[in-house]
Every structure is written in structure tokens, then in C-alpha cells.
Amino acid sequence: MARVCQVTGKKPIGGNKVSHSNIKTKRRFLPNLQTKRFYLVEEEKWITLKVSTEAIRTINKNGLYTVVKELRAKGQHI
Fold first, then answer.
1. Taking the chain (78 residues) in consecutive chunks of 10 residues, what is each chunk's mean pLDDT?
2. Pairing state of beta strands 13-18 and 24-29?
3. 47 and 36 Cβ atoms separated by less than 8 Å
4. Are 47 and 59 in contact (CB under 8 A)?
5. Domain range for 37
6. How many CA atoms lie within 13 A of 20 on its CB side?
């Protein structure tokens, strides 16, 4: 389970690759994950998260401390 966003929980999904002749073969759609360091001002330390680009937007909107607090409430170690 390495390709999972820590904030949104996005993970790979399956689907079909469709050729020009309409032949379908299985493929995986991977989430756009980034390993990103954030500075947590309230605790005065850096944290590293593996997040999707949607999660980066969520952190910018809601604030890092709020997102980290929700993750810890779910039981995730950060």
C-alpha cells in the first residue's frame, strides 16, 4: 500500500487501456502523489507527508495544523 495519499486516502484504481482498434487491456490509474515537507509552526518541526495534489490544495485551504489534527484523531502516526 505504498501509493496511498495520507490525507485523502487516494490509491490506484483499475481500468482499461483502449486502443484505436477498441481492444481493451487492463491498466492501473495511479494517483498524482508527491512527497512533501511541511513546517508545522505550532510544534516547531518539519513533517514529511506523501500527499496527492488535491491534498496539497486542502492543506492550503484548511491549514496544516487542522489537517494534522484530523489525521491524528483517525489514529495515523505523524
1. 92 98 98 97 96 97 96 93
2. antiparallel
3. no
4. no
5. 13-74
6. 0
Domain count, the chain: 1
Contact 78, 59 (CB under 8 A): no
Rg for the chain, CA atoms, rounded: 16
Q: Is residue 2 part of a domain?
A: no
Residue 39: closest CA among 64, 60, 16: 64
Any domain includes 50:
yes
Residue 4 corresponds to which cell in the numbers above? 496511498
Task: Outline where 12-77 has alpha helix (H).
Answer: 53-62, 64-74
Pairwise CA distance, residues 78 & 69, whole Å: 10
For the record, the C-alpha cell of 30 comes out as 495511479
